[in-house]
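Protocol step 4 of 5: obtain the predicted structure for the target chain.
Materials: sequence only (see below). No template structures provided, no constraints applied. The aim of this step is simply to have a reference model before the mutagenesis design in step 5. Sequence pasted as it appears in the construct record:
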Amino acid sequence: MQGPGQSPSVASTVRISGPPPPAGDAGFALRVSWMESLRAHWPEYLMEAALLGLFMISACSFGVLLDHPEFLVSQVLPDPTVRRFLGGMAMGLTAIALIYSPWGKQSGAHLNPSVTLTFWRLGKVRKADACFYALAQFAGGIAGVLAAAVPLTPWLEHRAVNYAVTQPGPGGVWSAALGELVISFLMMSMVLYATSTARLEPYTGLFAGALVAAYITFEAPHSGMSMNPARTFGSAIVAGQYRALWLYFTVPPLAMLAAAELRLRLVGARAAARCAKFRHAADKRCIFCGYQPAEKNA
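Step 4 output (structure tokens):
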């Protein structure tokens, strides 16, 4: 039995049963592999969708509570920096709660196609799992905003809240691009370092939540603080606002991939990442490194 954090080949996490494919039929083998991944790992895919959906419900709800002019908070606290600090704390705590939730411990709580893509680049996620994770994340982002809109539409569509859309601030597109570059690079650098360090790995989610809180407080005026194509797309498609959408689809993944490349060059492939989870729990299976809880092997 593998222990948490140990990393055998990720290809070993899916066992393909039945007769072997005909000799030379690589297309058949590929289709079987993707179908087997879906059949074996669909719970993790649904968890990823649900987790980002809950994150978006929280973002929309706190956006209404803190920024809508009819609500008490914006009247008592007219300074937007103070309200962003409160919003950052709320979303940081939301991220922490999701990462350490039972679902977060099982899926790995990527919540972000950029994170999944980076772990795939490092060889910690199979291609099929990476694609299904990304699809689930986009679906979850859209579903979360739609779910929040059901009770909150009259307030959520107000320009002060605007469906929690992430768009460039007064500095324009290039200021937003720089902001997304910096925050995404730092976030992924932290995740790779913390998850690869035994004494820090249990606190990775806390560090991530603290960064989310700080980014919302200080960086949000520049880019809206996305780091996440699925998070941005969920708000954009429901609001029907697509300004600079290309920025949020390109800069965060490129910045996180750059963080991975730098770590590869500093410490080598073996030490670059231990596993593609923010929190590797002993009681949850891992579809990335193949770990199974002891009771599952009894």
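Step 4 remarks: The two ends are 10 Å apart (CA to CA). The domain at 41-297 is CATH 1.20.1080.10 (Glycerol uptake facilitator protein).
Proceed to step 5.
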